[in-house]
Amino acid sequence: MTSFRELSGTRTFRASWFSQRINLKVMMLIGLAVFILVMLMLWSITLGAVDLSIREVWNATWGDGDRKTLLVVRTLRWPRIATAVVIGMALAVSGMLFQSIARNPLVSPDIIGINSGATVVAVAWLVMTSNTSQVPLAAFLGAIIAATVIYLLSWRNGASPDRMILVGIGVGSMTSAVTALILVRYPLEQIRPAVVWTMGSIYGSTWSDVKITGLVILLTLPLAVVLMQPLRAMSLGDNVTRSLGIPLETTRLAVIVIGCALASVAVAFAGPVGFIALMVPHMARMIAGPQSGGVLVFAGLLGGIMLLLSDTVALHFLPVVLPVGVVTGAIGAPYFLFLLYRSNSRM
Amino acid sequence: MASAAAAQSESIPTPVRQAPRSRTALMLVGLVVLAVLAALLSLLSLRFGSLPVTTRDAWDAVFRYNIDSYEQTIVREMRVPRTIIAFFIGGGLAVAGTVMQGVTRNPLGDPSILGVSAGASFGVTTAIYLFGISTPSQFVWFAFPGAAAASIVVYSIASVGRGGPTPVRLALAGVVMSSLLGAWTSALLLMSEQTLDLVRFWSVGSVAGRNLSVLWSMMPFILPATLACLLMGHQMNVLSMGEESARSLGMNTRRVRMISSALVVILTGASVAVAGPIGFVGLATPHIVRSVIGADYRWILPYSFFTGAALLTTADTVGRVIARPSEIQVGVVMAFVGAPFLIALARRRTVAS
Questions:
Q1: Alpha helices (H) in chain B, listed in sequence order
Q2: Is A24 on the interface with B (CB under 8 A)?
Q3: pTM for the predicted model, two decimal places
Q4: Model ipTM?
Q5: Chain B residues inside the 8 Å CB shell of A332
């Protein structure tokens, strides 16, 4: 790791009217993360009830192989793996955005009610109708409505992050209470699918899930990277931000909307997957340094890696198949503890 | 000091201010009023509930018990225990939350941050899964050690490195522990439906179906911890001035933090063991109290106790009245009672931390 220190420092990239400061260390970490991600994807896709070799997978991807292999590779495995990557990315990026906005390292997108809002609507839907096909839509609506309510309730000459946190806790408590009430009031067989949903799962993901999530990421990530610059100023306080000429409320709203879009689409397709949105930003900062657009991208890649790793372990390396949300906590926590230990003992 | 002030006031006109002594008297009167209010609300909890009971029956049940009367038996055997439990748990959780917020200087300070609730859930779920226990008085003996063990691990993790367990490190370690334990708990719930069926009623937070023996078994932890917390007002006032200021005033901040964290863990762990994880009392009560009486922790703490007690008993009563003939658990009602309060508070003024 000490060799990284020698390389750190910024270079400036210039091309006629355009110039951008680039941190070499972060760029290298991004490259490393992409490499690890690709390796992980290739490894994960060969695993399963039918073990396939890389060559078979490669051929099947391009449509060359027997029907069963084609089905397994193209309809089952690739969508699931791609979903894990994009959703992990969406969660990590939205987590970092919300942590910057709230100026509090303990927040996750749930602070604006995304997970709890999605959960209450999805649970109610599943328990009362047992219709699993519309659950993503229900969850998405729940997330968006909760976020809107919280944002509006915390608006008083501006949406101060401290107020948003408290309002978010209030609304979140209420929705969690309703969820708990539903789970207690209905018979066990009826609530079981809902309980499973609340643990987060990407099993049975389809290409449309990937496309929609990927589209949202494609639209929002560049904007988010650009917004990291004013966000750095915002971490110094509201007054400093204003005196630097940054439009405070507009920037805040933009970041919140982007963060909500990413987190809502993630919870819609994967259920409330814990840990990634909260911890991966921390991990990214511990490895790559203070926040910037580059670190945001790195965090996204790290999120994809974590979720894909958790999903692979959940599906293939446990005696019982568990939802991915259960595994992210179990895998991520020890790694985060390790990073915490390292950073603490260095301080 | 009084004579110097008097001497000064003769030469320079000073604005009239309340002398310290009458403020203390005012606060004391307020506290007594609050305590009486809490007691009255508890009495209401005996009178109102899922089953219609007359005031005469409720009175007789306590003072002139007629064992043949069904209504009186309900009041005596079911409402009295849950009222007493709600009173002490509510007060204890509120005090624990106040200490937590004062020590971490974070408005989000909630005892569950230390991994207490997750540890308790983990203990209960594992015990149900492995041993098949099924009553609250049995849950208690696994929930409390679970909560304590989780918090000790959290504390150890946060203590690594220089500077010891700072609030941020504690909170981060707490979240990590909660994730780990939560993952394990979820896995167990998926693997066994009977476990899920029992745990879902425990985790919603309820004082129903618990007799006083459940409370007494945890009282050796709840009562001393509550009293000790109530006595920490002075330390918390000093801490609230900031880390450097507190240290330069001679306070051993590390030791104070360690002691208060231990007290919070014991208090919260015991409360969660009895009634399940009841959210929100610990988080909202300090804010509510602070907005009324200001920032002196020596008063905030006892006020929080009675406010929390009143809140929880009222929430329990309401839960039984509005869902006749069944009930809505107190954990759910607390969220609906407390959350609007918190939201209104957040909107009304800048957040006091």
A1: 2-11, 20-47, 55-63, 70-73, 80-104, 116-131, 136-159, 167-191, 193-203, 212-230, 233-239, 243-248, 253-275, 281-293, 297-321, 330-348
A2: no
A3: 0.79
A4: 0.75
A5: 179
